[in-house]
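Ticket #4471: complex job returned nothing on first submit. Input attached below:
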Amino acid sequence: MSEHDDEKLIGVYPSVPKQKRAQEKRQALLESGRVLFIEKGYEQTNAKEIASHAGVAVGTFYRYFTDKRQLMMSLLEDQIDKLLPPEPNWSFVDPERFFASVMEQHYSQINQIGLHRLLPELLLKDPQLADIIAAARKKVHDRIVSGLKKAQEKGLIWGDLDLDTVAWSIMVLSENIPERLVKSKGQVDYYELSKVICRLVFPPQIFKQ
Amino acid sequence: MSEHDDEKLIGVYPSVPKQKRAQEKRQALLESGRVLFIEKGYEQTNAKEIASHAGVAVGTFYRYFTDKRQLMMSLLEDQIDKLLPPEPNWSFVDPERFFASVMEQHYSQINQIGLHRLLPELLLKDPQLADIIAAARKKVHDRIVSGLKKAQEKGLIWGDLDLDTVAWSIMVLSENIPERLVKSKGQVDYYELSKVICRLVFPPQIFKQ
Amino acid sequence: MSEHDDEKLIGVYPSVPKQKRAQEKRQALLESGRVLFIEKGYEQTNAKEIASHAGVAVGTFYRYFTDKRQLMMSLLEDQIDKLLPPEPNWSFVDPERFFASVMEQHYSQINQIGLHRLLPELLLKDPQLADIIAAARKKVHDRIVSGLKKAQEKGLIWGDLDLDTVAWSIMVLSENIPERLVKSKGQVDYYELSKVICRLVFPPQIFKQ
Amino acid sequence: MSEHDDEKLIGVYPSVPKQKRAQEKRQALLESGRVLFIEKGYEQTNAKEIASHAGVAVGTFYRYFTDKRQLMMSLLEDQIDKLLPPEPNWSFVDPERFFASVMEQHYSQINQIGLHRLLPELLLKDPQLADIIAAARKKVHDRIVSGLKKAQEKGLIWGDLDLDTVAWSIMVLSENIPERLVKSKGQVDYYELSKVICRLVFPPQIFKQ
DNA sequence: CATGAATGAGCTTTCATTCAT
DNA sequence: GATGAATGAAAGCTCATTCAT
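Support reply: We reran it on our side without changes. The output follows.
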């Protein structure tokens, strides 16, 4: 829709192509924010840098976001769904490899986003953000618990461990990959970690079946 | 020499409480820094605040520390030894309770310090600090590994898990206590977590012995 | 002197002001700096004062100059060419009046700038600036020497004095005008000084020719 | 009141040595101030540095001087007499060598003091100091003028130059020695300068007598 | 008297945010 | 809408001066 059409119409709302460009700018700013936050930390990155990295002026930054904080919030909201791990399929042959591949799939995505490194800083800085993050982690946790419950129903897992604690452990371990396991090109060797997690979940006899 | 002794003597001696008092001020600043850093985050706390929280003027802050960063370093150095877990004793009856009490002992101390929450922020902000922290974590890790090895020699632990990964997992799980387990007065219920960690370490038949 | 030269000497500006208004602000800052430096001395003037004298905020000062020192450098460089005296024409009737008018022309300009009063302070304060100033003075000195040499070739000047020392003397005397000779409105009576300088240069018989 | 009286009257305070010591401290502070002012400039030197250079505490500095400015004033007052050049003796054989030796004597002393480099900075900074300095220079100037007048009475000097201007020129030239003439160990070769000054004073025929 | 720790005003510099162009 | 110059609050740090010991 051309600008001319715009004038014919009510003349209040910006038209489609404008919205599209605007959306692109917004996206560019989000992406620049993400990259710089991860590279330098949240507090060490300022609006001007984000704008110039996105190829726009500072003023433009403030057209799309009220401030840096709001951009951060948007980033988290945009990406928060990706934090959810996939629903595991418990009928499998080699649970250790299977788990490793699930983690690989999931955490390669999270690592691409990379925001998780910022969370501790943000938690202290901004209680509202802390709430959003806590909610997201709760979702992840619940998803893991629900997966574990299904396995439990099938009698696949240890009977004596508290599921919440096991789920928490899985989440925490997955979020804290030792440097040692990060290979070249950011590839991570999840296999050893997967074995540890499997130990928490499955009694050894399961593997023999 | 106590201040009381001072008064007994001929008059008012300008004895040596100068250094003592100065050290007290330094300690007060360190403590204020610690408290505020934990409460508000490292970046959100400034020298003026630390000084006034410690009941001194800004200039005094700069008499004892070149800047906020150096205070942080001092805090870390003062406390870094406490991060080392005690050497566990593997001859025991109830490993789960035992482990829980070891963690309780150790982490109640760390939580009193509370600096560990700041580490992720500092890692991004200050590479030099990141090195110090990494070195400290390596020490902790090595200590855990060495404990595990002793247990391994006694044939107490699973044979199929990589000790480094298990040690890492213990460290990470111990550092990330779920809120759920934090009871009133900051007391933490380590028992469930201990059970999880024991599962990583000991095969079930060990418990029957 | 072109901006290109500027950059070579001073370094990189925080941002290169592109717009006309920006240039005007920069000029206003330079002028305010000049006036205040002369009025109160370099050390007694701070960035805030310069900014508010120029009618802008402190932040604006730092948009155009990294600090007070750089502003001073710019001032010096902007004006340093004016320190060079004109090449004298030795074929004349009344050398004393002629010299007086040359000095008048030249030093009225320098006094308008007024920065020369600051130089001694700067020499002690800033070795790099001292070098720039020394280079400028060397230029002036060389110009005088070259003028003297031309006169020497024509046999117009005393044969027994060292030209370097005479040139230095001329420069120093010209830079240090006695208060007594400063009349109202900053007008200076150079005639007596000119006579003194002429005595250093020309033997009396020259005047009779 | 003699020091002896002191003891008779009060008999409590350790009179003699302390006053003496106090004077020594004052002298040490003055000397340290002088050295540091010359080395780094007036504004660049602070009370603490002066004190520690003199081997006393800051507080002690403020016992003897209200502030840095007062120390500077004292320095100037203490040394101002030395700025006065000796009365020249106009009956001589080789005026150029004679003048050179007079300057040598006199300015080696001034250079030992070295404060003259600070004057321009102080003139702008402190009008009251400016007055003191102006008065001192006036004294020097008057002394030179009076010397010139005696020579004039003997018909030894050019008749057509203004004595004030000649005296000023001598003063200014003597105060501004070109680097070139400063030899190793701070020794200055005054001979060439002396020739220049002699040219201002004596007609050539005088030398033949 | 001497000391030097403590003070806090004041200077430099940065940066989130606004606004004239 | 987009721009980036301008703003000024606020942080970092210094140093002349005071004062308890």
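The CA atoms of residues 43 and 125 of chain B lie 9 Å apart. Closing as resolved unless it happens again.
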